[in-house]
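Hi,

I'm pasting everything inline rather than attaching a file, because the server keeps stripping attachments. The sequence lines come first, and each chain or strand is labelled.
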Amino acid sequence: MPRLLYGGDYNPEQWPEQVCAEDAELMRRARVNLATVGVFAWSKLEPAPGRYEFGWLDGVLDRLAGNGISAALATPTASPPPWFGLAHPEALPVTADGVRLSHGSRDTYCASAPAYREAALRIAAALAGRYRGHPALAMWHVHNEYSSACHCELAAEAFRGWLRARHGDLDRLNEAWSTAVWGQLYTDWAQILPPRATRYLPNPAQVLDFRRFTSDELLAAYTAQRDVLRAATPGVPVTTNFVLGGWVPVDHARWAREVDLVAIDHYPADPGAGAEEEAAFAADLARGWARHGTGRPGWLLMETAPNLIYAADRMHTKEPGRMARQGLAAVARGSLGVLFFQWRAPRGGAELFHSALVPHAGPDSRVYREAVALGEQLDRIAGTAEGAVRARVAVAYDEPSAWALQAPGLPSRRLDHLDEARHAHRALWRRGIVADVIGTLGALDAYAMIVLPGHYLMSDAQAEALRSWVAAGGHLVATFLSGVADEHGRVRTGGYPGALRDLLGVRVEEFHPLGPDDRAALTTGAAGELWSETVHLAGAEAVVCYAGGVLDGRPAVTRHAVGDGVAWYCSTRLSADDHGRLLGAVAASAGVGPELEGVPRGVEAVRRHAGDRSWLFLLNHTGTGHDVPAAGIDLLGGDVVAGVVRLAVGGAAVIRER
Ligand code: GAL
Ligand code: ZN
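And the predicted assembly:
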């Protein structure tokens, strides 16, 4: 019988023996089956260079194994010990302002420093040697949330090497970086620096390449550890927990090809209903990375907070039942389990009030009781682990495009590719249409419809892949700024959106960015926000026009039949509902509907399939009860469902369908 993974980060090194003994008992009661251990334990494992103290970890792993709990054993390399930085000051990170950081927190390392890379490999190898064959070892969790850039001399040298490999010679680099602007021509590789603090606007192409370099540099640090671990323990999957956000200098779509399992951490920023929408986006993104990276759609929610959402300036305690429902929602979208940060709330340290399955109050608490209940629920739906989500719609989210749109000097400071991708996904989510969020424009045949929400950077190869996919019957919806720049961030001239002009059948002459309170009225009665532009038809037909203002009567939304498919263009940002209407209509014409008809808004319905079997997950995120059409057996409640299932306020059902 397959099982869903359940548990989270476990830090027994913070606690005395009797607490750890209680942990084992409490984990068993909650049916925890996976504990992530050792993530920040480097200084305890190697208190002095080359002196290892594994005894305590032996005890932890033995106890876990003795209680039938597996370990995702971490390499602790995200948090070097204090001695490390003192012995190797050149391996401490330097900010863009030239400040060398000190130890005292975590992530105080430079991925380009040989001393760091060697020390990281040594501790990884020591752990692998010690615990190969240990019955608790189920998975390697390398590092933690790779995301730290460095601007030091060592990074500069590595950056130059990376640039040589990417651009070949300086002429090509100067061309790609448009260094003729502001007289920044490079005549020697040694002149090139990371984008350190400078006088005025930095060169956006340099910043973009530095992000890509950082992603590759961190990836090399990851794969070096992975290879050591794989060699020592073939068959034990190796992964690392991806952290999401536009600020992260990591191209996860590329990384997904190098992990055995895509694992993400997810901390929504909206305490309201938006958290469920954010979580669905993150899940569908993880699944998209997995499907196109590892080649399998399964992914793992490696960290999420049990009982808080941190928003604005405070922690919001989750409502009763929400933790479990959000956990089930992740499983609904293909997660292989539900892991939390963290098992037990710490007494001190940097995150002392971060929520946990065992809170400061102890096990006599709502959260722990809910954790026990969730453990039972996950056991009841263990069979769903076999199933995979099937999505015929994709939303493209391209991390380099997100980085490029963060550059200063663009037509609006409010452009955000991640926001636009979430916006499109939210519009689909609210209509119950299941979508993969994909980070590469390859293997598109699986999809009947693709949304490009402000996919700013586009190579010729990507544009060609889209063109042939549309010609073969695909339904594309591109929104403003998609395809405007090439992969170096240079504008494609002759009319926007350069790379997609022919496919979309439009030529955009100029932009009219909107202010926060501006609205662009449309002929449908809807209004656009954020952005508008002068669109000329060049093969496409206008479906919606601007109404009033300087753009009065000009096309706002267009449709272009190409081969067997259709390419739509939306030149402004529609509200989520209006965008949903457009995307819903395009989906319908592509033969795709909601996962389940007749589901009220705020009730999530998603299926996992295995062969001809299916499990329907229904999650009521609303404040009222709902009757939803379904038939089969509700695995959570044990009832036979014949036609309609009643979902209580905040309730869930997982129906094994007939
Ligand atoms: C994650 C991180 C954890 C913990 C958590 C707190 O990003 O991996 O170690 O800091 O955030 O929310
Ligand atoms: Zn450095």
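Residues 93-94, 110, 112-113, 150, 152, 154-155 surround zinc ion (ligand 2) (CB under 6 Å).

If the labels don't parse on your end, tell me and I'll reformat.
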